[in-house]
Amino acid sequence: MPHAVNFTFYDICRCPRAERYVALYTYTSDEAGDLTFNEGDVIDVVKTDGDWWTGSIGLRSGIFPGNFVRKYEEQPVAAAAAAPVEEVETSFLFCRSNEHRPLGGLNNRSPATR
Prior knowledge:
The chain is 5% helix and 23% strand. By secondary structure, it is mainly β.
């Protein structure tokens, strides 16, 4: 079963020499300098030396166990488009700036005549 992938707002600011990895498990630590993350987070890895790797998620960076991640594989656009999409029903209330009516629409007088 594929893991959910979580991107951050700062994905566009990632280091150009970093390689992307996805967290397989949640990693928590109270140690200063450790990078904590949740399963599915995308991590920009800049150093894979030994068991402890160095990477960042957005503006946070630090070390973490390398066996907690796997290489991120981007899905082609066609594969993403073929994925099932959940339908959501939406409704909108539009009004012109000079027509302020209660939500029920029972009062049809303009604000100037009230």
